[in-house]
């Protein structure tokens, strides 16, 4: 039951992250997003949802993770609808969509695990060994999401399915891949910032 309830709670809590506005992007967010593969997407998806005065890479990385969760849950739900319709029509594309749905369901689980682990990492009682263990887990889970999304898209090769539905599926899955790629990059930046501060090489909340 927990596996079903937690993503729903997260979706309700993070639903506002689906609204990407033309908000002015603070310089600090721009600098952090420059480390990602999709900096424009990174900035547009975070600008309206991160405190404009923040200098905390942890806050930015966690906001990016929330964006990934919302995108993945909405994509999973969309695939459920399409899969059901194709099954009723006995369309040969059904299996490819069903396989993609399975991959996206796994992605939601991996992102949920990452969110839980990120919450643990915020605990002041955690030792550096604990932090390193959680860091490895989050990196593994986010990387798995990237793998899942590309397996999903590869599964459609060889099928004649085209038109608006296919374009929508590919666009949504690709978007999950891109925001998650950004999340991983921002998380790695946060982890590096944490190590630098913990080792006494820097201080305060600012990073270059």
> Which residues sit in consecutive blocks of at least 5 with pLDDT less than 50?
1-5, 200-208
What is the molecular shape?
A: elongated
Helix-residue proportion:
over 70%
The fraction of residues assigned to DSSP E strands is under 5%
Structural class, from helix and strand content? mainly alpha
Helix-strand string: HHHHHHH
Largest sheet: none
State the total count of DSSP E strands: 0
Calculate the mean pLDDT score and round it.
Answer: 82
**Terminal residue distance:** 43 Å
Oligomer: single chain
Rg (CA only)? 18 Å
How many individual helices?
7
Could you describe the 3D structure shown?
The chain is mostly helical and 208 residues long. It is built from seven helices and no strands. The chain has helices spanning 2-14, 27-33, 39-46, 57-89, 94-121, 128-154, 164-198. Helix 3 crosses helix 7 (164-198). The model is unreliable at 1-5 and 200-208 (pLDDT under 50).
Secondary structure elements and their pairing?
Elements: H1 2-14, H2 27-33, H3 39-46, H4 57-89, H5 94-121, H6 128-154, H7 164-198
Helix pairs in contact: 1-4, 3-7, 4-5, 4-7, 5-6, 6-7
Compact overview of the structure:
This protein is an all-alpha fold and 208 residues long. The chain contains 7 helices and no strands. The protein is elongated.
Supply database-style keywords.
208 residues; mainly alpha; 73% helix; elongated; disordered N terminus
């Amino acid at each position: 039951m927990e596996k079903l309830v937690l993503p729903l709670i997260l979706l309700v809590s993070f639903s506002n992250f689906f609204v990407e506005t033309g908000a002015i992007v603070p310089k600090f967010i721009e600098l952090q997003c420059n480390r990602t593969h999709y900096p424009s997407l990174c900035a547009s998806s975070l600008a309206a949802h991160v405190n404009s005065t923040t200098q905390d890479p942890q806050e930015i990385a966690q906001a990016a993770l929330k964006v990934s969760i919302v995108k993945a849950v909405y994509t999973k739900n969309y695939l459920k609808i399409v899969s059901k319709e194709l099954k009723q029509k006995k369309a040969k594309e059904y299996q490819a969509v069903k396989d993609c749905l399975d991959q996206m369901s796994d992605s939601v689980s991996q992102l949920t695990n990452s969110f839980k682990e990120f919450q643990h990492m915020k605990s002041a009682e955690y030792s550096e060994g604990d932090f390193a263990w959680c860091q490895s887990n989050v990196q593994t889970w986010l990387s798995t999401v990237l793998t899942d999304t590309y397996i999903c898209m590869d599964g459609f090769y060889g099928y004649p399915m085209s038109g608006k539905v296919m374009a929508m599926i590919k666009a949504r899955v690709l978007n999950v891949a891109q925001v998650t790629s950004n999340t991983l990059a921002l998380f790695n930046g946060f982890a590096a910032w944490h190590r630098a501060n913990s080792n006494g090489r820097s201080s305060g909340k600012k990073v270059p």
